[in-house]
Amino acid sequence: MDVAQALANENLENNFLGGQNPFTPYQESAATINLERTTVYDSDFYFKILQNMTGYFNGTISLQQAWNNFYKEMERNYPQLDFGEDR
């Protein structure tokens, strides 16, 4: 049994969640994640989205500009990928 399953099986309660053990739904959801379609790019994409959206979240750039910045950086970093024209 792994650590996540052990925590899900524990009699843990979280007052904020009305006494629910938060690890139980986490474990149930984690079991449904299909990793067959993950790529070597996913981690970098995730961090670059967060990095490029920070200006939008802080109110210093528009959402469209944040996405434009993201795609420009991804196209520069990964010229072999086709990001399409419709974005």
Describe this structure in words.
The protein is mainly α and 87 residues long. Helix content is 53%, strand content 0%. It contains four helices and no strands. It has helices spanning 3-9, 23-30, 42-57, 63-77. Helix 1 crosses helix 2 (23-30) and helix 3 packs antiparallel against helix 4. The longest helix is centred in the middle third of the chain and has 16 residues, at 42-57. The chain is elongated, with a radius of gyration of 19 Å. The termini are far apart.
Overall pLDDT score: 85
Share of residues in helices: 40-55%
Helix/strand-derived class?
mainly alpha
Question: Quick one: overall form?
Answer: elongated
End-to-end Cα distance, whole Å, is 43 Å
- Strand content range: under 5%
Please tally the β strands and state the result: 0
For the largest beta-sheet, the strand count, sense and barrel status come to: none
Q: Note poorly predicted spans.
A: none
Structural Rg: 19 Å
Order of helices and strands: HHHH
